[in-house]
Design a protein that fits this description.
Two copies of one chain form a homodimer. With about 325 residues, chain A is of the alpha/beta class. Chain A is built from twelve helices and eleven strands. In chain A, the strands form two sheets. The first copy, chain A, has an eight-stranded mixed β-sheet with strand order 4-11-10-5-6-9-7-8, sandwiched between helices. In chain A, strands 1-3-2 form a three-stranded parallel β-sheet. In chain A, strand 10 and strand 11 form a beta hairpin. In chain A, helix 1 (about 10-20) packs across helix 2 (about 35-40) and helix 1 (about 10-20) packs across helix 12 (about 305-329). Chain A is elongated, with a radius of gyration of 20 Å. The interface of A and B includes residues 260 and 262 of A.
Chain lengths: ~325, ~325
């Protein structure tokens, strides 16, 4: 449910209303139950079933299995950001992580997270920079990939929340190759096309102009791309980002690897702000999230657009179907 | 005319056909005359008048005053890139610069350049990185600003053709302030709105998150923006680029200052590739250019879209009208 003082409860309620029947899957929601009851009206389709987090939990099909890690947030006001709500957001996330860890290895899992305030969580949990890194740590993953899946294209930053001055130092062949491996293993999640074209961006302007404007293209990016061409059918790069995103908008490229956060995020949010899905790969399961924040300013006004959350849930479900399909074969 | 072996002659011919009558202005074109005759059909409106570059030139109104610096390029083939055509592109540019320099100071001037191959020119004129820097040097300008004027918004990179690793070192308060001064002096060229909103981007992801992800926002960008708020009515920043360009697309921001080349170019070309105009400010006159290259692959096929060139000429004419209006007051 994310931060109960944000729009998480509202977009979650609207999403469950919209999605309706979910069969052959166990649906588990962790968050504040009173807020869920306020925002979810579709009880007729999938009724809520509140579990006691203190006891052994037996999830049921055709129900929204609900777990409230407590304490109750009964007095959340519009736009309110407080220590209590932040604490509950973090407790909910930790409980979701705990549930996933306890599930048997052979069960396919997916996690959908709702918006939290990174800054507020960092105040009570030092060093919190986002779900991606928090989950990487919780599941002891050596490498995770953040992918932004949109209607127009998918954008994947190879480096994430680091200063621009640190980018050249952090950018290695191994990092690009590890990211491309995560892409290769999740092509059906990252693109609706059966044969998507993957494009790797340059770091420097004009693709470095043969070394005249930086040498990372020659030293790092091109060798990484070349070494992965053996397994990728449609892989190209390095391509200057002012060409890459132009072509992505014209359906020539489907998945764009950017070398840093804003190389991906600025073009992506420009065209897919409403419906983009933030996805984490490399955890052992797929995690998705709407690509927007807590929007404290519109809480309680019935103004929150659930589109990104709906797409996040659909993508998570798709990842489970893929896993199941894989097993049946 | 730019590179005679590129699409310059074709888009120039189409543009002059489209624009038709230009009154109260002297039109001067420098390039290859035989190619001009091939691509320009609108002689009835503004007839061509070929001058001898060796003699004193007396420009005439209601004519396209044409100067061919020679030698003639009669055998340009489709898609051909050669030393001869590159040399002629450079000679044409040098002659245009020479003409502007010789004109009396009190005459309002504007320069429109057509595409050249930077790489080909660099082969015969070492260190050539683009028109912007070449003109800055030719006119001994201390500071020039490159602005990309599009239909959706205008994007202005504070640093240009440098490696990413050099950006933090080159980014100073003075550079941002000098750029903002160029913006302030050319607001009517940069935006069609009477009261445009100017937004300055952050360098680092999430606007540096209060210093957690880089300190350039605190040390450099915010102080520069604050110091310019006294003269700017609508100036905001630093704003994270993934918010800035999203808002620019929704008409909340009109002019975006980016801290580096691709921060501006990737979002800009994504939406304004066909009609964007590359503009140089700070030369003492406005220089405009279509925002695309020589497109050698489509030369001679009548496929070149003149839209960006038409907009470039219109913007140059607008800058002259502004100067004239200023003088009449």
């Amino acid at each position: 449910m994310g931060d109960p003082a944000g729009i998480g409860p509202e977009i979650l309620g609207k999403t469950l209303d919209e999605i309706g029947d979910i069969t052959e899957l166990y649906v588990v929601v962790v968050g504040d139950f009173s807020l869920m009851e306020r925002y979810y009206s579709g009880g007729g389709k999938l009724p809520l079933l509140l579990h006691d987090p203190g006891k052994d939990i037996c999830f049921q099909e055709n129900r929204i299995n609900f777990i409230d890690p407590g304490p109750g947030i009964n007095d959340v006001k519009s736009g309110l950001t407080r220590r209590d709500s932040t604490l509950k957001a973090l407790r909910s996330l930790d409980m979701a992580i705990d549930i996933i860890k306890k599930l048997p290895r052979e069960i396919s899992k997916a996690l959908v997270t709702a918006p939290v305030s990174k800054q507020n969580i960092a105040n009570i949990s030092k060093g919190f920079v986002g779900h991606t890194e928090y989950l990487q740590n919780a599941f002891s993953s050596k490498h995770v990939t953040m992918a932004l899946v949109g209607k127009s294209f998918t954008a994947i930053p190879v480096t994430r929340h680091i200063p621009v001055r640190d980018i050249p130092g952090k950018l290695t062949r191994e990092l690009i190759i590890d990211t491309l491996k995560d892409v290769y293993g999740n092509m059906d999640i990252l693109s609706a096309k059966s044969d998507p074209v993957v494009c790797v961006c340059s770091l420097n302007p004009h693709c470095g102009e043969g070394g005249a404007i930086g040498d990372e293209e020659i030293r790092v990016i091109a060798p990484a791309v070349e070494s992965m061409k053996a397994i990728f059918k449609n892989l190209t790069g390095p391509v200057s980002p002012d060409v890459a995103f132009y072509k992505a908008m014209r359906n020539e490229y489907d998945i764009i690897l950017g070398m840093y956060h804003d190389q991906c995020l600025a073009p992506f949010k420009m065209v897919d702000f409403e419906s983009g899905v933030n996805t984490t790969l490399g955890l052992g399961f797929v995690r998705t999230s709407p690509d927007h924040g807590t929007a404290y300013d519109i809480v309680g006004k019935n103004l929150a657009n659930p589109e990104s959350m709906i797409q996040a849930v659909r993508l998570a479900v798709k990842s489970l179907m893929k896993n199941t399909a894989g097993k049946t074969e």
